[in-house]
Write a structure and sequence with these properties.
A: mainly alpha, MetI-like fold, 13 helices, B: mainly alpha, two-stranded antiparallel sheet, 14 helices
């Protein structure tokens, strides 16, 4: 009896040991592939210029992280600070507009039935596939004298973000029972009041998804500011980083300090909202 | 009918106006301006000249080939790797939340930052990748400086950055498969490998379709990663249609740039629509 028991225990221990080895291997492989690049950026952002020029992953002998960051922020008349300000303004205002116009549109698109609304719906969804027409968009912006202006880049950002936001909103609004609308109508609510005083406040959970996903998207965007918001005063974070690439080609520590600085905002969002981000991205994609 | 009135079209107007003016209208106008030589104020109709140029200039033509390779290679790798990762991360691993975060985080990092970091990691003599290869006795190539290799190196970095989305979509799909199916399969004496082929894979079909479509659209439109890593070089060897559109715009060839936009539109339409239709039809057959 006791020997059998012993064998079983040994077997169990052996199994759990194999398990531990396999698990550690998996963790090591994934870390090597997905963590080392970030580790590389962080340690090199902390080094002195000559030490960083070796491009090694060794631990810094002298910590210069604060000095490096200060130098990056102060470069070219505080260009990066200006860029942070500009990118924040564009991101915040675009999202505020998106929340209102996206949810209004999502509500009508989800609730109305009929052929014409389906056509309108697919026209919006087509925006997920169609690449924006670059020079004609500049041409349109010029007609309204919005080229190289905040309103111009914001309107373009809203326009290209509307399709995905609508998908998120329609998906969520579908879970709100229609009986609620009918009750409101009987109480004498008009269409606008029904939406703004009853439906809109109920959309809080999906509003936050829309905010987070678009914040990451718009803050990280390089292509659209490059085309529609050029000019030295119009620096945005990603564009500044790109321009610094040639400027710092010998000072890797400064370039990586810059990379580190602009990766902090999305990292904070990720730490707080990772579940929400993942849920929003998977929900949107499967329906799209 | 009365109810429909409550969902007034007027609620659609703000979104429709912004989307129509700043997205749809330029898209429609691109079909016209692609036939012209213009400078934003004056235009001159030149017929198919821009398009002929695209097909005759080898430096422009290469963009088509590269875009095609890039889109299908990255989409394929994202599906295969994403499935492998998702199977691993739905198994009984204690560290799966940690690994999922590792795989997903690059999705949120700016493409330019990723591009810069990897152009250093892929440095031919001092980069970490070739240093590691050197440790095991391999002589790593010049990943971004070799014209035959550059576009593939960029594609691998794109997969590194984007496989996280594919993985979480697959995980969501696999989590929704009822456990009963696997239990029944096990009772019938099936092994885990068979379970993957006969249960997990067919029931992940909607997720796989979503990933294929998303990855293809993203891949066909890619610009920033290539721009940050190679600038389309060496020469024109890693140019994509989207980077050509930018270069022609910078050079002041607005008509040619717009024609490139139209061609990219058509490429997306010709590749993505049929695949979308095909994949969705199969889904109904199941």
């Amino acid at each position: 009896m006791s020997t059998q028991h012993e064998i079983m225990r040994k077997e169990k221990r052996k199994k759990s040991r194999i398990r531990l080895i396999v698990e550690s291997l998996i963790v090591i492989v994934f870390s090597a592939i997905f963590l080392v690049p970030f580790y590389f950026i962080i340690v090199n952002a902390m080094k002195t210029s000559p030490e960083a020029s070796k491009l090694s992953i060794s631990w810094p002998t002298e910590f210069r992280i604060l000095e490096n960051m200060q130098e990056v922020l102060a470069a070219r008349d505080n260009m990066l600070l200006l860029a942070f300000f500009n990118s924040t303004v564009i991101t915040v205002i675009s999202i505020l507009i998106l929340l209102v116009v996206g949810s209004m549109a999502g509500f009508v698109l989800q609730r109305r039935k009929g052929k014409s609304i389906n056509i309108i719906g697919s026209t919006f969804l087509a925006g997920l596939m169609i690449p924006p027409a670059v020079v004609p968009t500049i041409w349109v912006l010029e007609q309204f004298q919005l080229f190289k202006t905040f309103p111009g880049i914001i309107l373009v950002m809203v326009a290209i973000s509307i399709p995905f936001s609508i998908i998120l909103y329609t998906g969520f609004i579908a879970t709100i029972p229609k009986e609620l609308d009918e009750a409101a109508i009987i109480d004498g609510c008009g269409g606008f009041r029904l939406f703004f005083s009853i439906i809109f406040p109920m959309l809080k959970p999906i509003h936050s998804t829309v905010i987070i996903l678009n914040a990451v998207q718009i803050f990280n965007d390089f292509v659209h500011p490059l085309y529609f918001f050029p000019g030295a005063d119009n620096a945005t974070v990603q564009l500044t980083l790109y321009n610094f690439m040639s400027m710092y080609s010998t000072d890797w520590n400064l370039l990586f300090a810059n990379v580190l600085l602009i990766t902090i905002p999305p990292f904070i969002l990720f730490l707080i909202f990772s579940e929400k981000i993942v849920a929003g991205m998977t929900a949107g994609s499967v329906k799209g | 009918m009365k109810i429909n009135k409550m969902y007034s079209y007027s609620l659609l107007i703000p979104a429709g106006l912004i989307y129509g003016l700043f997205f749809l209208y330029p898209t429609i106008m691109s079909f016209f301006f692609g036939f012209t030589r213009w400078n934003l104020t004056d235009w001159e109709w030149i017929g198919l000249e821009n398009y002929i140029m695209f097909f005759e200039e080898s430096s422009l033509m290469i963009g088509f080939k590269n875009t095609f390779i890039f889109a299908f290679l990255t989409a394929g790798l994202k599906v295969v790797l994403g499935l492998i990762f998702a199977v691993l991360l739905t198994a009984k691993l204690r560290t799966k939340r940690f690994i999922r975060s590792l795989v997903f985080f690059p999705v949120l990092v700016s493409t330019i930052a990723v591009g810069i970091a990897f152009s250093v990691l892929l440095h031919p003599s001092e980069g970490l990748v070739n240093t590691v290869l050197g440790l095991i006795g391999l002589n790593g190539p010049d990943w971004l400086g070799n014209p035959n290799l550059a576009i593939y190196s960029v594609a691998f970095v794109d997969v590194w950055k984007g496989v996280g989305i594919a993985t979480v979509i697959f995980i969501a799909g696999m989590m929704s498969i009822p456990v009963d199916y696997y239990e029944a399969h096990q009772m019938d004496g099936g092994n885990k490998f068979n379970a993957f082929w006969h249960i997990t894979l067919p029931l992940s079909r909607p997720a796989i379709n979503a990933v294929i479509i998303l990855a293809l659209i993203g891949g066909l439109r890619t610009f920033d990663l290539v721009w940050a890593m190679t600038g389309g070089g060496p020469g024109f060897s890693s140019d994509l249609i989207a980077s050509i559109i930018y270069k022609q715009y910078q050079a002041g060839f607005y008509g040619l740039s717009t024609a490139g936009n139209v061609l990219l539109f058509l490429m997306v339409a010709v590749i993505v629509f049929p695949i979308f239709k095909y994949l969705n039809r199969k889904e109904v057959d199941l």
